[in-house]
Structures are given as structure tokens and as C-alpha cells.
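Cross-posting from the chemistry board since nobody answered there.

I work mostly on the small-molecule side, so proteins are not my area. We synthesized flavin-adenine dinucleotide and want a rough idea of how it might sit in this target. Sequence and SMILES are below. Is it possible to get a predicted 3D structure of the two together?
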Amino acid sequence: EIEQPELEETTNFCKMNKDSLVGASCDVTFKEINDINHKIRPDLLSLVHSDFFKYFKLNLYKQCPFWNDNNGYCVNRACAVDVIEDWDQLPEYWQPEVLGGFANESVSADKVRDDECSFLDQLCDNSLNQMRQRGPDIEYCDVEDFHNDQSVLVDLTVNPERFTGYGGEQSSQIWSSVYRENCFSINETGQCLAKDAFYRLVSGLHASIGTHLSNDHLNTETAKWGPNLELFMLRVGNFPDRVANIYFNYAVVAKALWKIQPYLSHLEFCNAYHEDVKSMITSVVSNLDSKIFNENLLFHDDISSKLKDDFRSRFKNVTKIMDCVHCDRCRLWGKVQTTGYATSLKILFEIDSDDEDAKQTVVDKLTKYELIALFNTFDRLSKSIESINNFEKMYNNTLLTAGDRILTLFKGNNFFKLLSNAGKSLSSSLKDKSNESVASNKSQVEDFDSPKLDNVESNIIDTEVNDVNATKVELPKQELNRTEAKFLENEDFIKESNATESKFTEINSDFKEHTTSESSDSETPSHKFNDIVMPSKKAFVEEEVTNNTLRNAWNTEIGNVKDALRFIFTSYVDFPRNVARVTLYKLNHLWNWFVGVPLSVNVESDEPAYELNVE
Ligand SMILES: Cc1cc2nc3c(=O)[nH]c(=O)nc-3n(C[C@H](O)[C@H](O)[C@H](O)COP(=O)(O)OP(=O)(O)OC[C@H]3O[C@@H](n4cnc5c(N)ncnc54)[C@H](O)[C@@H]3O)c2cc1C
């Protein structure tokens, strides 16, 4: 039976018990992965910023092989990929003259093989590709992709994975096609675990992308990039299984790295030319452990070899689906990461013999781009886990900072329900404040002035104290006053709508609820917020938005009908007057013709004919 990550009621964030195992096939807890990640993060970051690991090659122009949809494209600037267009853009020691003209097509395969930089050669010619011997298919992705004429070289560090605005039907289609690959036909022992692993891999990839786009998100009001907690919670944070799947993927890729490390020793990674890549790899992998993932549980006997083939071809399809992504930046990172997982799966499931030479052969056959993808995928997961931990801090700070709670309230987006631990005084002050605002504002507005809100927010954040307990007791009132003053300063900002009024009424009742419950249990405030789950709040907001939208649509339609009726009515009123005007005009023409005045006099002109007519 598949073990699901345990949920813990008392943990607000992601509702996960960090001491539980990441999965049935992983003998590691969430907390242990957090610790490992914390240790290796700096080295891993340096590694993927090294010259060897930062240049990736892909074909951005490949046609979607699954459906005829090659015409759309993402027009956002954020969707674009900056490619290396000139050899000059590469480091100096990679210039052909330094490397002895290895870009020369005529260079012999043997010579390339002997070169300690043989991996680098694939940057400029495909001699290594020709050397690859055909054997049984052990590929989980299409490695030939890297040697296509149309492939471009990309510096991953200048094309960060971040929010691009790509979405809608096209991306949904991609994701549903990816999930559809998880329909295994054969009913063999172990299928359940393999199917679960497949699902967790793609869901973990999806969640990791969601984490990155939330962590590096464009705030359209301030034009700054930064973390967006709300978006993260909506996409990932509120779904413990998605968060757990990121950790699962981390375990899978970590195990693959652990497994190949002894067989990488003969590769020099061009240490002579630039960073000591090899020692960076060692310092990352030495923190990993074999027990992090047990791949033998998935395809453990001959019976499951058919299942393994199915698994492999389905995963290969996932990597190919990336060619259907219309946003180039998303396609780039989709390709890097699916190739990274494909490489991990190849290492985990195809290096299963005790034969050391066979293991070495599989590693030797890895292309440079598979290695790059492998380490960069690990970095993406590592960054996701780091971001999740940061989001957790933000989440807790948001809950504990009274000012933010007030702002959330005024923004009308109170999915972080107001805390009661600020004490009755805060509640009553806020109640007064909200009543005051409701009473004093009559005009209707649709929305608040967000930049101003952000200013207030940043002011408040600036004044945050480190001691969370102190914040709980002392800050609320102080911050309330500051916030209140800010609100009063900006009169137009405080304009309220009828909708806002009802929101305040609702919030007031929230306060009443919290104030009442608080008096009975003021020692353990955190238990009151176990119900903080954004989707339900989203549903609330959405419902409201839907109602507003319906109301607006109704009002617009009624307005249109009124306009049409007014037009028809005025047409009837104007009709006799218009008939009289036309008749007069025609009679004028007739009279002019009758007395012999030329028709041209009615045309604006400097000609004397007009004057003649006047006379
Ligand atoms: C390959 C690829 C790469 C992308 N890269 C980027 C990028 O770099 N930057 C960017 O801004 N956008 C990227 N996108 C788009 C992004 O993933 C979303 O599709 C987009 O933001 C729209 O999100 P959504 O809320 O409509 O739901 P989507 O994320 O499109 O999800 C569709 C549905 O899948 C389900 N779902 C969501 N997450 C999971 C999960 N983790 N596990 C299981 N089910 C889930 C939900 O039911 C959801 O409604 C990429 C898309 C693809 C296909």
C-alpha cells in the first residue's frame, strides 16, 4: 500500500509533519531533507553557476509531435529566451584557438575521446553523438535532441526560471497530457508503486515550477520581482501532497547523483581551465545518502520489466510534450528538468547490476547535456525546498504581524483570518476602525489603491520587531495607529463601496467570533488558525467576484437596453424636424437651379462665384 505523508493538525503551514517519511520508498524525513539541503545549497548553487554546468543546448523550434498546434506563441517578454548567438559570448578558454580548433568537423573521434574536455566538444560539433553506439533502449528522453542543427546554446543563469505569465488553455492542455501519461495498461506486481512514483514525479515537477513562479513573481504594481506568498499557497502550499512530491523528487534525483558519483572520477570537467567542478560535485554528493530513495522497490523482478519499459516510454513522452510548450522560457526549463528526471531514472533503473564495468559504461555514455540537466534539476528542487522554507517563515510572520492582518483586512482578502492573539483591545480598536470607515464613506469604489497599500505595508514591515512574542503583545496597537494614520492621510484611498461595507460587517462578525473564543483560550492562539486554508477563501473571493461580475453584466445589459430605447424614442421625436430640414435643403437646391445659380456655390470655396451668389 502506498504510504501517504502524514498530516499534522497543529502545523499551520502546508499541514505536514516534517518528521514523517517522504514516501514508502524513501527512508528520509522532510526535516532531514531540509537539513541536507541547507548544507549543500551554497555548493550546489556555485556548481550550476560554473561554466561547465550553465550552458545548455536545446531545440526551441521543434514541432509538437502530439497535436497540430504549432502556431501559438507566448508574446510576453518574460517568455523569451536569450540565446548565445556568438561564440564570443562564451568564456575565453572555450574559444577555438585556445582549445586547439576542436570545433573543426574533421577532428577524429579518437582524438575527441582522448581530450579531457571531450564533453565540451559537443558544444560545437556532433562527433560524440556519432560515437554513441546503438544498444538496447535505455533512454528516458530523446538524447539526439541535443545534436540537432536547429539547437541553440543557452546560458541558464541569464534565463532564470520565474513567472512568465504563460497559462490558460494551452498550458492546461500540456499539463493534462503529462498527467494522462500516467495510465499504465499492464497489471503487474509493483504497478501501484511505479504508478505512484510516476505521478509523484510529474506532480513534483509541476509543483516545483509553481513554487518558482511564485517565488520569482512580477508585482505589476511595483514592477519588482519577488516572492508572492498568496500565489504560492494557492498553487502549492495548500496542497501537502504537492509539497511532499517536491521532496520525493529531490530524493529521487539525489539518489541518482549518489549512485553515479564513484563513476565520475575519470572526468576532469576541464578543471584546468576554470572552477574546480569536481570538488564542488564531491562536496554536494558527500552529504547524500543511499537510503534517501530505494529504487529497487519499484521494478524489483523480471515480471516488472514490461512495466519498466512502459514507464520508460511514458516518461519519454513527457519529455517530448515539452516541445508543445508555447512559452520558450517555460519550454527551456521544462526540457532541462524532464531531461534531468529522465537521466535520474536511467541511472536508477538501468544501473542495477553488480557489474562495475557495466555501471561505468552507463555513466560514460551520459551526454554532457544529461549531466547538466541532472545537476540543474537537482538545483531547481533544492531551490524549491529553500523557497518553501522561506514561504513558511513569511506565512508565520504574516500571521503574527498585526499590521499585515489589518492590511489583509482592508485589502478585502482575508484568507489569513484575523488572529485573536492580539488581544481584545486590538479587536475592539479594529471594530471601531472598521465601523468608522464604513460610516464615513458613502461613495462607491470598485477597488483599493494598491500601491498606496504596498507603501503602508512596507512601512509596517520596516518597523517589524524580531521578537515575535513582543509583536504579539505590543505591536498591534501601535501599528494599528500607524496604519490608521496612513489610511486617513490618503482620503481617496479610504473610499468605501457598498461591497466593502458588507465585507466590514462580515469581518466585524469575525472579530466577535475570535474575541469570544479567545477569552476562553488565550494561551494557545495557534490552534485557532488551523482552518487557514486559502482555497476556501479563494472560493469566497471568487464567489464574490462572480456575484459582482454578474451584477456588472446585468447592469451593463440594462444600460444598453436603456440606451437603445432612448435612441429609438429620440429618433421618433427628431423625425419631423429631420424631414423638414431635408425638404428645405432640397427646395434650396431646386430654387438655386431655377434662378440659375451654379451648384458649386454650395461648396466651401474662395472662388468669387460664392460672392456672386451672395450678391
Ligand atoms: C512545461 C511547463 C513549464 C512551465 N513553466 C512556467 C514558468 O517557468 N513560469 C510560469 O510563469 N509559468 C510556467 N508554466 C505555466 C504554469 O505551470 C501554469 O500552467 C500556469 O501558471 C497556469 O496555472 P493554473 O493555475 O491555471 O494551473 P496549472 O498549473 O496549469 O494546473 C492545471 C491543474 O492541474 C492541477 N495541478 C496543479 N498543480 C498540480 C500539482 N503540483 N500536482 C497535481 N496537480 C496539480 C490543478 O488541478 C490545476 O487546476 C509552465 C507550464 C508548463 C506546461
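Reply from a structural biologist on the board:
Welcome over. Reading the output above for you: The chain has three domains: 22-214+243-392, 401-532, 542-614. The first strand starts at residue 21 and ends at 23. Happy to explain the C-alpha cell format if needed.
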